[in-house]
Automatic annotation (TrEMBL):
Pfam families: M20_dimer, Peptidase_M20
Gene3D superfamilies, per database record: 3.30.70.360, Zn peptidases
Top-rank taxon, per record: Bacteria
Protein name: Dipeptidase
Keywords: Hydrolase, Metal-binding, Protease
Residue span(s) of domain Peptidase M20 dimerisation: 206-353
Length: 459
């Protein structure tokens, strides 16, 4: 692609942007919270509104579809629109989600969460970034490439706008299976992550996986009097504490044998910023070793997320016979979840304090994601981002999981997945005062248009 094309696309995106911003504002006004306690009519309304936007964009085949959730209820409405690939060109699936997180306490917002409000270069509102900006990124890229009039889209596109991502995508897997042919693509662009900072783009190249489960510890057949038996018997909570203490070493790194650690990221998370963002109390040291970003993205992390013990209010002078703790283990990219689960089971068996009966009950498993560094799609994305921002993208990880990415990889193992950003560190997705930086969003639109043009030149 020559620089004339880039300049023309840049000018076209600038010209289109006010209308795109208006479309984004209209979507933000629909309170499409997918959490069950909220009125799902709004999710249906946002599906209908995005369906209309895609129709107006000139995509010939637009449908609202859903699939059953594992509990048998109907999944939230997703919108799928297609435009077939020109002969020999690849097909690109453009993913975003039209549902949003609940707004939380309205008093913690400076503006009405569902009345989009521009302050300086930022547009505030629930979903303004996560992920209605992703919808607008796709829409903008298609318009910049000539839709609705143009007949010359360089690639086939399938736009897929999910309606229940913020509720854990319960029907996602069934949806993929049911619509495998409709959604099949060579490249999948997931516009639901973050850029590194305003002015510096990023590709999300890794996500941690997850294993959880419960460790049950038993020491007595039944509870006994702590005066009569204490001293020769340790209570189950004390023994559980000893077991839990073996999960980390002195420095706070996970000490379970056999877990994978990925390589250190190329960028670091400033420690002062991390302290502020996490609300870590003054004087409390960070856990673990290595870079902060490495601890968050490239290493396992273990938390005790629940423990069943007698409450303080109900306490009596009794030695607890048993105790159960729920363990959540985040997995480094490259880690097989089943192997991590087996390592946890072996660890608790090996470290049973004083021979207490310890049982591991396996729970959920989610695969980590690690993008190949050198795929043709990745090279096209890096080149497009570099042109759009005037600076190369950095590779970032995400410490959490996006469970649907693992589903995409399993159902479409041959597709290249690009996880792109519409957020920046000030976007506050899921929090009060969520916002998108409009200058960044304009660059996101341009980058995606450039990416589609490059993919059309061949993979
Ligand atoms: Zn999202």
């Amino acid at each position: 692609m020559n620089s004339d094309t880039t300049a023309a696309l840049r000018a076209r995106v600038a010209e289109l942007f006010p209308a795109l911003q208006a479309d984004l504002e209209a979507l933000v006004r629909i309170p499409s919270v997918s959490a069950g306690a909220f009125d799902q009519a709004h999710v249906a309304a946002s599906a209908a509104a995005t369906e209309q936007l895609l129709r107006d964009a000139g995509l010939p085949d637009v449908q609202i579809l859903s699939a059953p959730r594992p509990d048998g209820t109907a999944g939230a409405p997703a919108v799928v629109a297609r435009r077939p690939a020109p002969e020999g060109a690849p097909t690109v699936l453009l993913y975003a989600h039209h549902d949003v997180q609940p707004p939380g306490d309205a008093a913690t917002w400076d503006t009405d969460p569902f009345e989009p409000t521009q302050v300086g270069e930022r547009l505030f509102g629930r979903g303004a970034a996560d992920d209605k900006a992703g919808i607008v990124a796709h829409l903008g890229a298609l318009r910049a490439l000539g839709l609705p009039e143009g007949e010359d889209l360089p690639v086939g596109v399938t736009v897929f706008l999910e309606g229940e991502e913020e509720s854990g995508s319960p029907s996602f897997r069934a949806f993929l299976e049911a619509h495998r042919e409709l959604l099949a693509a060579d490249v999948i662009v997931v516009a639901d992550s973050t850029n590194w900072k305003v002015g510096v783009p990023a590709l999300t190249t890794s996500l941690r996986g997850l294993v959880d489960g419960e460790v049950e510890l038993r020491v007595l057949e039944h509870a006994v009097h702590s005066g009569m038996f204490g001293g020769a018997v340790l209570d189950a909570v004390t023994l559980m504490s000893r077991l839990v203490a073996t999960f980390h070493d002195e420095a706070g790194d996970v000490a379970i044998e056999g877990l994978v650690t990925a390589s250190e990221p190329e960028v670091d998370y400033d420690e002062a910023a991390f302290r502020a963002d996490s609300s870590l109390l003054d004087g409390v040291a960070l856990a673990g070793t290595g870079t902060v970003s490495g601890r968050l993205w490239a290493k396992p992390a273990l938390s005790v997320i629940g423990i069943d013990v007698t409450s303080v209010a109900a306490a009596s002078n009794t030695i607890a016979p048993s105790c159960t703790a729920k363990i959540s283990l985040r997995l480094a990219p490259g880690q097989d979840p089943a192997a991590a689960d087996a390592a946890l089971a072996a660890h608790v068996a090996k470290h049973a304090p004083l021979g207490a009966r310890v049982t591991w009950h396996s729970g959920e498993q989610g695969k980590p994601f690690l993008a190949p560094g050198d795929s043709a799609a990745m090279r096209a994305a890096r080149a497009a981002f570099t042109e759009a921002w005037g600076t190369a993208p950095v590779d970032v990880g995400v410490g959490g999981s996006i469970p649907f990415i693992a589903d995409l990889l399993e159902v479409f193992p041959d597709a290249a997945i690009l996880v792109t950003g519409v957020e920046d560190p000030d976007s506050r997705a899921h929090g009060a005062n969520e916002s998108v930086h409009l200058g960044e969003l304009q660059r996101v639109v341009l980058a995606e248009a450039l990416l589609l043009a490059k993919l059309g030149e061949g993979l």
